[in-house]
Specification:
CATH class of the largest domain: Alpha Beta
Length: about 500
Amino acid sequence: MPVARANSEGAVASGHRSGPLRQQVYEQLRSAIEQGRLRAGTRLPPSREQAASLGVSRNTVLWAVQRLQAEGYVEARVGDGTYVSQAAGAASAMPAQGLVAPPRGLSRRGQLIAETAARWRPPHVAARAFRIGAPEVAAFPFALWDRLARQATPRQRSARAQYLDPAGDPALRQAIALWLWASRGIRCDAAQVVVCSGSQQGIDLIARLLLDVGDEVLVEDPGYPGIRASLLGHGAVARPVALDADGLRIDTAAAQWPAARMAVVTPTHQFPTGVGMGLARRQALLQWARAQDAWVVEDDYDGEFQYGSVAQRVPALCSLPGSERVLYVGTFSKTLHPGLRLGFVVVPPALVEAFAMARAITDRHAPGDAQAVLARFIAEGHLLRHLRQMRELYQARQHTLRAALADASDGAWQLPASDRGMHLLHEVASDCDDETLSRKALAAGVMLAPLSRYAMQSPRRGWLLGYAGFDDAEIRAAAQVVGGLARVARTARKP
């Protein structure tokens, strides 16, 4: 193995590394993969042999290999050992303009953060059909928002121009707490609400404050790569958990990863598969958290977009009895627009001060004017009216998408209707190559995300189609492109 033996002080001799021995073993194994010394398809020696060769315990090697597996560098084959994954091998062979090594001089944590670019690159180009997560922006009441902003008195504007409470504007925190009770069934005090810059910062705060390097976190597989990137950037180990019709299999996860300290879930509308977590599964998850003294992070990224009557809408996991160890993450990026950069975390009372200080250390506080206007926007009922309009619009656009795709593909793409969310999933057999069709669609001007892009170990394949942010004409035009590609692919598969 291209990894140095531990010396008498318990440190790996080569490379002048320091820190926990298991971290050193992990870093050298990863370096060997990234630099091509361990190529794609190479079978790693059994853990006992590696441990004997390095002069370390078997548990040290197992920890390092399990972390590499969670990050996608290696893959375990049942009954056949552990191999360097093809994806890791491809990354190591990419030219300089592709995935490159982090610059020298970074700390270990800095390297972890820089390396998230290999796993997640947040989009920053204009949204086109069928990009997921893009809300309808043109219909946002900008004129109303500007009018509310202009109504502030000079004294109010001066007060908001000062340094403010890092936990958020008191009026906004109160408005959010009342809104959560009315809309999501969550009973919380305004003091438990910590305002942040969207759900991504909320996840970052949680990882920084509640996890140590090496801690294991249960994540949905397939799931949102931005969550995994944040966890890995803080040195946590993301443990993939398979899904069924009720969401994350906490029974399987508890048996496979008994040391896990946290689970991150999207229970109302699982991203990206769209399944909802049933009551029995939710109760099992809460029971696991209590028994393990673990945390559950509820990412309710599009929970407001449920299209039935109010009585039919699924309440938040955080609203159930026994949810004291649940941290609720919400965002206005989907309900209003991403440019607002406002979200929030509902935390247990004992954690509020720590979260507020972490927010202060990061960027002090959110802009005062934006917080004040949003507080009025919610309190005066404008958010309720806007969401009601968006639910009607999104449901109609979903219908347009389903009809247009079925027609354009000659019936090959029959997407089932969904009573929630902003995108649909067209799933296919696990042996299907979903990347090729996505690349062809992008070349034709259509954003069609492959399901495999969101998987860690899951074999599930298919395509995600966002419909919320695009008018009927754009949806139909994009459907023609995808339908044509689907017909060509179907013809090519025929004998």
